[in-house]
Amino acid sequence: MAGWTVASVPIVFAGCFCCTASAATDTWVNDADGDPVFVVSSDFNAGLTKTLEPILAEVRQIVGDDRRITVVFDRGGWSTRLFRRLDTSGFDIITYRKGHDPEIPVQQFEDRTRVEGGIEYEYTLHDQPRVRIGKTGNKKGQGPQYVWMRQVTRLCEGGHQTPVISTRDDLPPENILFYMFNRWRQENFFKYMREEFALDALVEYCTEPVTEQADHPNPKVRKINKQLRAARAELAEIERSIGQELHANKESRRRSVRGFKIAHAALLQEAEQARQKIAQLEARRHKLPKRVPTSDLVSLKKDRKVIADAIKIAAYQMESDLVGMLAEGYARCADEGRTLLHAAFRSAGDLEVRDGELRVTLVPQSSPHRTRAIAKLCRKLTEMGVNFPGTTLRLSLAVAEPVTIG
Fold first, then answer.
1. Structurally, what CATH architecture does the domain formed by 5-184 represent?
2. 336-406 adopts what CATH topology?
């Protein structure tokens, strides 16, 4: 379990990746570096609050009984009762706070930095050691049983505040935000491999209809919710402008509210139009069912899906390792590393078997500096002394010398 220990406590990341087209929910468990450890597939309707405890029981078997474990997950696992049970079972948590809470004055935030892998992660944050996040019910004769946790709030660009709660009071606040915002990468793996290499074609033809009576969130409601967020943000910006104009208003020029309204009639009309748009969207959403049947969905055959997911993750991990090796000889690797690798993957080349080697010689790349970077990467791979799979032939990689004209 190397790589799990942070501040002498193992860190694990759990997140649901729901595939609407496949009518299934996969819950991935990752180590402290965000790399996958294992996956559990469940019914389409299975939420993280239902699947998390059985999964963490498996994690406990791996880590052992004598250590507390910190589990990081998103809002899908929000449940104050669940939090209390996890704490009793020896698990700490880091997750987003769900619901509305009062905004924190901007002047109370501070800048903090965490360095990870040579990269600086900067956060503007506010740390509250103890906040009340909810209750688990009422006990007879004792009143409400409240749940208290630490809250670290991140101030994002545009002024949005994202609160993160945790039972860990020993970690620097920037570490809590780092773990939360870098908690898992499987969704990125799948999206990347689908867009770049079309690996979903491996399993698309291995489907079967969903036979169980199930439902899923209405996609039309999700679309309207997105429009509502944009409309409310637009209204908030207009109201902010009105407030600024009101603050700057000179009573010597406009002594009454009526005068102010006349002077800013256009701005007030924009606000009213924005409110009408929000009301229309809310009315449309109210008429729609929150959940719809899964009659339009299919289920991927589990064995093929697991194999395909493993291929996707392994391919992405290997490409990530190649990007890391490429970085030493390519200054723009952070921006262009994967693009350069894709070009090399598609390059023509010569194959030759000689002296116990399989020699692969790629054609030069589109520019001299790219050719040098790929050639250096080829030398590193050759020095690893790997055999071509299924043979005793040592794999040798190189890039042909560019042809000089004139």
1. Alpha-Beta Complex (3.90)
2. Alpha-Beta Plaits (3.30.70)
CA distances (Å), origin 28, targets 17, 40, 133: 7, 7, 26
Q: Identify which of 132, 104, 98, 114 has the alpha carbon closest to the alpha carbon of residue 177.
A: 114
Of residues 305 and 237, more confidence is placed in 237
Cα–Cα distance, 230 to 219 (Å, whole number): 17
Among residues 89, 70, 227, which one has the least CA distance to residue 164?
A: 70
**396 dihedral zone (left: phi>0; alpha: psi -120 to 50; beta):** beta
Rounded Cα distance, 105 and 155, in Å: 10
Q: What is the pTM of this model?
A: 0.60
SS3 label, residue 209: strand
Rg (CA), the chain: 27
> Would you list the domain boundaries of the chain?
5-184, 219-288, 336-406
From CA 33, how far away is CA 317, in angstroms rounded? 12
List the structure tokens of 43: 């019914």
Is the separation of the CB atoms in 26 and 40 below 8 Å?
Answer: yes
Write the single-letter amino acid at 381.
Answer: L
Reply yes or no on whether the pLDDT at 378 is more than 70. Answer: yes
Tell me 387's DSSP state: B
Instruction: Indicate the helix (H) or strand (E) that contains 303.
Output: helix 302-326
The predicted-structure confidence for 177-220, as pLDDT tens digits, reads as follows 998 887 665 566 666 666 776 666 656 555 555 555 566 678 88
